[in-house]
Write a structure and sequence with these properties.
By secondary structure, the protein is of the alpha+beta class. It contains two helices and four strands; from the N terminus they run E-E-E-H-H-E. The longest helix has 5 residues, at 40-44. The mean pLDDT is 80.
Length: 50
Amino acid sequence: MKIQVLGCSAVELPKSNLTSFLVDKKILLDAGTIGSSLDESEQWKIKHVL
């Protein structure tokens, strides 16, 4: 299992992202970071969002 942290500042400021975790490039635990941290091809690989 590979877990990628997409932002971890817990605040939305320029160059800072809300906390989200990408598990095995297919499961996203998201707090609002997907659009600013992943490009379109990476977003299409996601199968589940929590």
